[in-house]
């Protein structure tokens, strides 16, 4: 594909730089053709792309993704349109629902590149226009915000509920942002990272807790009360809803002890091989609800950011050029320093 704006003094380009994940677990920057827009595709010049926890997971399993172009949390500008595409124009600033076409998820090439192709774009389904109120960096945060929003929608949380979030990395913060936008103010958060506890405070958590300082159940009971049960040695805290955004056994063990009778446990992080304490779930009539990705939350997430009801700008702590993507991933793994790390292609 030929991309350029000669009237503005730019040269016509046919090549781009992409980063490919190699089976070694490192990225290789290579030059390749800019993708063509087939008659039912658009090509987007990438402005910014975030690193997701699932990207970190694919790097750990890199042997199965040899040569893949990752990157699915992105924003950019449309530079080429297929003849059968409707409702989209060159120059439109957009983001995408990557799960429709598995963009950057190991199948369709993603946005850790200068350009990305979106197959069969349909406005409101897998491609979304960005209003002027949302800049490129905020546009790259829409996808993780929809993950948090979907989890909140699945939970049915509403104002007056007593809520706990275990894990306040980017997704946990997006859950908190969605809860606060919905008017839920009684939200406690637990995370061992001082940086992440600071993010939670900035997003409006009622109180934050470092598990090094003692039992999370005791901390939650101090705010939401507790109840003694004949089949438990210790009193149980009385939260209505607990979001597990950590995905580790120790968190799940405390999460089920933090819920009132009939409470809801939301599994947002990938729990891998965690063992669920099924007897307590049964005796306490708890509901365990999974939340993965999103359904139709993109428009709502865009509206939240555009209106100012949600501001995630503080979450972006580091920016790296595409040529330093290995360093970007190393930083994203550092919970004490990084919030959201963005990769910028720098066309």
Record keyword descriptors for this entry:
alpha/beta; 27% helix; Rossmann fold; 347 residues; 26% strand; seven-stranded mixed sheet; 11 helices; 2 domains; Quinone Oxidoreductase, Chain A, domain 1; six-stranded parallel sheet
Write up this protein:
The structure is a single chain. The chain is an alpha/beta fold. It folds into 2 domains: 6-141 and 312-344, Quinone Oxidoreductase, Chain A, domain 1 (Alpha-Beta Complex); 146-290, NAD(P)-binding Rossmann-like Domain (Rossmann fold). Helix content is 27%, strand content 26%. The chain has helices spanning 53-60, 98-101, 136-139, 142-155, 170-181, 194-203, 216-224, 249-256, 278-283, 298-307, 325-332; strands at residues 15-21, 27-33, 41-50, 73-81, 93-96, 115-119, 127-129, 163-166, 187-190, 207-209, 226-227, 236-237, 239-244, 259-267, 287-290, 316-321, 340-344. The strands form 4 sheets. Strands 3, 4, 5, 6, 7, 16 and 17 form a 7-stranded mixed β-sheet that branches. Strands 10-9-8-13-14-15 form a 6-stranded parallel β-sheet, sandwiched between helices. It has a two-stranded antiparallel ribbon with strand order 1-2. α4 crosses α5 and α4 crosses α10. The longest helix has 14 residues, at 142-155. The chain is elongated and about 70 Å long. The chain starts with 14 loop residues before the first strand and ends with a strand.
